[in-house]
């Protein structure tokens, strides 16, 4: 979330073509470049070692739905010694049982940790401050799409259904801190993904049925609002 000089700054939002993604299966979509200003949101151990003003994280994202790739870097300070890569493949009519959705080689599969996220589960990954009725899928019903609430064994029987398979890779090269920071980062993402997708589901009536032109107009409006919010108020949103 954005406010108090921190949050999201959108620099580029444009179409791309002829960029091979997911082994060349997808080559076109929407590219964005954003900067996350995160002075108050990084872990205290990271604050202690990085100088003030070095917390700007650049995000480059390629949305070639159903495949998306996001890369986070810190070019001002960490340079090639840090990156986070998040790759997502969305599979229709899938309930989370595909063993190797990202087609990973055996050497990576052996080290992979699988985490199952149920967006209707309030108790597994979220903090108490994350849980509000307005973004609880177990209480939400979409009047436009006639979907929800998600209750009981919904993952086994609800239709339509989709699973988003996310592959998170974190690299932080710093002697004595690398393993600790990388492990800490991996532990944050289940909460982040759960909170974000709960909001996407429960805000369905705001985006369901929009045309691509309407979506782009909404993105431009959001950019203007983010720019204004970043210049005023206090820092908001999740902290590590």
Description of the molecule:
- The model has no long low-confidence stretch (mean pLDDT 90).
- The chain is α+β, with helices and mostly antiparallel strands and 240 residues long.
- It is built from six helices and six strands; from the N terminus they run ββαβββααβααα.
- A six-stranded antiparallel beta sheet has the order 1-2-3-4-5-6.
- It has two domains: 1-77 and 209-240, no CATH class; 91-161 and 180-208, START domain (Alpha-D-Glucose-1,6-Bisphosphate, Chain A, domain 4).
- The chain is globular.
List keywords for this structure.
240 residues; Alpha-D-Glucose-1,6-Bisphosphate, Chain A, domain 4; 6-stranded antiparallel β-sheet; 26% helix
Ranges where pLDDT stays below 50 over 5 or more residues in a row are none
Give the biggest beta sheet: 6 strands, antiparallel
Order of helices and strands: EEHEEEHHEHHH
Count of domain modules: 2
Count of helix runs: 6
Alpha-carbon distance between the two ends: 13 Å
Rg (CA only): 19 Å
Helix content range of the residues, please? 25-40%
Number of E strands: 6
Strand numbers in spatial order across the main sheet = 1-2-3-4-5-6
Helix/strand class: alpha+beta
Q: Would you tell me the overall average pLDDT?
A: 90
- What's the shape? globular
Pfam family, one: IP_trans
Protein name: Phosphatidylinositol transfer protein
InterPro entries: PI_transfer (IPR001666), PI_transfer_N (IPR055261), START-like_dom_sf (IPR023393)
GO molecular function: phosphatidylcholine binding; phosphatidylcholine transporter activity; phosphatidylinositol binding; phosphatidylinositol transfer activity
């Amino acid at each position: 979330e954005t406010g108090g000089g921190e949050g999201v700054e959108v620099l580029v939002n444009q179409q791309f073509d002829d960029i091979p993604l997911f082994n060349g299966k997808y080559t076109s979509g929407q590219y964005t470049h954003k900067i996350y200003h995160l002075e108050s949101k990084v872990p205290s151990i990271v604050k202690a070692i990085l100088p003030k003003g070095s917390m700007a994280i650049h995000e480059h994202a390629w949305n070639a739905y159903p495949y998306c790739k996001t890369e986070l870097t810190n070019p001002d300070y960490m340079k090639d010694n840090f990156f986070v890569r998040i790759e997502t493949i969305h599979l229709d009519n899938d309930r989370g049982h595909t063993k190797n959705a990202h087609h990973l080689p055996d050497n990576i599969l052996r080290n992979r940790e699988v985490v199952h996220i149920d967006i209707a589960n309030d108790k597994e990954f979220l903090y108490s401050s994350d849980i509000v009725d307005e973004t609880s899928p177990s209480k939400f019903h979409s009047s436009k799409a006639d979907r929800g609430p998600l209750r009981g064994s919904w993952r086994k029987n609800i239709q339509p259904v989709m699973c988003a398979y996310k592959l998170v890779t974190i690299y932080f090269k710093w002697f004595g801190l690398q393993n600790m920071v990388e492990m800490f980062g991996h532990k944050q993402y289940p909460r982040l993904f759960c909170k974000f997708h709960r909001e996407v589901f429960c805000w369905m009536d705001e985006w369901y049925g929009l045309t691509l032109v309407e979506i782009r107009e909404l993105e431009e409006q959001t950019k203007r609002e983010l720019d204004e919010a970043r210049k005023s108020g206090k820092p908001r949103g999740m902290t590590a």
